[in-house]
Amino acid sequence: MVNTKKNFIWNLLGTTANAFVSLFFLIIVNRINGTSEAGIFSYAFSIACLFYIIALYYNRVYQVADTKNTYTKNQFISNRIMTSFITVLISVIFTLVNRFDFYKSSIIIFLTLFKILEAVSDCFHAFFQKKDQLYLVGEYLTIKAILGILFFLILDYLTKNILFSILGLIFINMIGLFIEIKKYFKIYKEKFKWQTDKMFSLLKSVWPLFLFSFLNIYLNNCQKYILEYFMNEEFQTILGIIIMPATMLSLCGQYLIGPLLNELSLNYQKKQLTIFSKTFTKMNIAFIFMGMFIFLMAFIFGIPVLNIIYNINLDSYKIAFLTIIIGAIFYALSTIISNGLVIMNKNKEQLGIFIVSSLISTLISIILIKTYYLNGASVAYLMTMIIHFILSYLVFKVNLKEGSEVNENSN
Question: What pTM was estimated for this model as a whole?
Fold first, then answer.
């Protein structure tokens, strides 16, 4: 592939920029609009991210992996439009069921629209990737992230109104999507035709993938969702701030294993399970040491830096912050193991892990948050991630052992 280096660099930049936008949005809202409105925004954004998975339904990897063209491009596009429309309805129903006021409901629905446009864009991004033009995806994501932050900052500074600021984000994404669609027609030179045939077949075939992605987002935000029903918006802001570094930390596990995925896949295909296992052990050990260093830096600099960035005093939440950091280290380790299970094609087992972890997390979070509030949320996060790591590790080891025994018997 002639664009390999270009694809890698721009994809890394675009993915990273897209992952960090919520960090800047929360900083802007907290400094300009205050802690209470930042809490509303933080909660609404986490809900919009969950709804985004419904609109997305299947990720770009599945679409790119359809090399046999089981589904046409028009079928993929039609499906994404349909799931996006359903997501809008779900967001409206969600706000009505929870009886949120007009302001909070509007923020949730507007942020959902913002994320839905990202989901539609993702469908076209897959087509660019199939043409070995992944760098285009990275460029679009990077530009939209930068412009989105700038528009959001300027509009919020001028209007002091989050709703107008979110409309700016929607406008940026609409312009971006228009440019991406034009590029798509230029590359493929095909007319769009609405196709509903095979739609349910597509939805059914990717159901486990959707549920896995949905639970993954839920597991990371479970405490934020439940906190909404027991504490006010200011505490939602505090939890959003102290959990944000943990969210970024979990990406480190993915960055660590990313460059080794092809090599590990070959090891497993060639039944070199000893090498396969040792590589994962080394990665886990390396990340444990990395995690210890990050924890030390968080212990010394974490709260003072967050105080400066968000213009809020978090000194009394240092223990809760460090507790969440430890939990994030366990989740990052789980992310590394998760990639191993994907390589081993143990997707059903992994789905089972997420279902069990999510159920336990919900129960623990309700009990602890109801009793200990924000401190309970941090402990619930830690316990959730430890349980999730243990389950992932045990399933990984059991399947690896079974694979080794099969190899020995065949020899």
Answer: 0.87
The rounded distance, in Å, linking the Cα atoms of 106 and 156 is: 16
Model confidence at 403, pLDDT cuts 50, 70, 90, reads low
Task: Extract the tokens encoding 7.
Answer: 């694809």
| C-alpha angle 196-183-60 in degrees, rounded to nearest 5 | 55
What's the angle, vertex CA 69, arms to CA 68 and CA 73, rounded to 5? Answer: 160
List alpha helices for 98-133, DSSP H.
Answer: 102-130
Give the residue carrying structure tokens 């709804």.
51
**Gap between the Cα atoms of 42 and 286, Å rounded:** 32
The tokens of 100 are what?
Answer: 């949120």
| 60-74, 297-311, 396-410, range with greatest mean pLDDT | 297-311
Q: What is the DSSP letter of 160?
A: -
Q: Are 88 and 48 in contact (CB under 8 A)?
A: no
Residue 361 and residue 222 in contact, taking contact as beta carbons nearer than 8 Å = yes
To the nearest 10°, report the CA torsion of 323, 337, 62, 169. Answer: 20
Question: 386 vs 150, 155, 323, 331, CA distance in Å?
Answer: 38, 41, 12, 8
In this model, does residue 204 exceed pLDDT 70?
yes
Q: pLDDT tens, 153-198?
A: 999 999 999 999 999 999 999 999 999 999 888 888 777 778 777 7
CB atoms within 10 A of CB 326: 18
Cβ neighbors of 50 (< 8 A, separation 6 or more) are 214, 217, 218, 221, 225
> Quick one: which of 170, 149, 153 has its CA closest to 107?
170
